[in-house]
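Moderator note: this is an archived Q&A kept for reference. The question asked for a predicted structure of one protein chain; the sequence and the answer are reproduced below.
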Amino acid sequence: MAVVIIAIAMLMLVASSSSDPVCPPGYPTHGTPVSELDKDLIQFALNLEFLEAELFMWSAFGYGLDHAAPELVNGGPPPIAPQKANLDPLTRNITGEFGLQEIGHVRSIIRTVGGFPRPLLNLSAANFATIMNEAFGYELEPPFNPYRDPLSYMLGAYTVPYVGLLGYVGANPFLTGYYSKRLVAGLLGVEAGQDAVVREYLYERAGEVVWPHNHTVAEFTRRISELRNRLAKCGVKDEGIIVPVCIGAENRTESNVLSADPNSLSYSRTPPEILRIVYGTGDEHVPGGFFPRGGRGKIATHFLQPKPWI
């Protein structure tokens, strides 16, 4: 009963602050829109949004932000070796929609907390090949190429949205501003949806062998997730599309369309964990991988400083 009363009170508060009680703005009348910590945390996420925007736009359309939304790049360098992927109509439509969504994400973050020049991004096939080699523990022959075909592309895409999703879950408890919370909730919802679409696509093909490599789709996802767990160094927060029953939902299934903790809640990651993964170095102080010169913003650049003596 108390919960119902609180909910009604909140609705009345919101409605009373609007000239249109039918469609209130959805924000409280008091409080801070965006705090300084909010700004830093959300700007950190902008690094991942730039990465996703460029990957999806180039893969679907053969061009990125410099062509689609040049005002957002703020003088940042163009990505390294992006390509238009060899996609079928289904994966092209999915990827194109994701890319256009990411433009909106970048724009929304910049409008809310300000931005920075796009960081240097390495979208080369060679970089993805290095990631897969690390995941499997040896060099795949021929090298993995995410731009080769639809299935290879979706495996390449598997490496990106989930990382940003966990970053938003991790940032959420530290946000205090109501604009900040609304923005992150909106970003989190779409990022989770993108990850779910990618995982469902791969789940339907779990037993399929990925040509020209003698490994199934399920094995690829398991290896990629295990690599991210090793790099992040903070336990298991990433799972492939097929798992042992002991870590499946309620310990009753090997099916793992959505990766989640023992209570089926999304895992969370901190900025250092995320940097260790996207740099591919396992060290938030050492750039590489998708960010050869490191990320931008106060949090990412802080970790680029020399390590303090211990």
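Archived answer notes: Confidence is low (pLDDT under 50) at residues 13-18.
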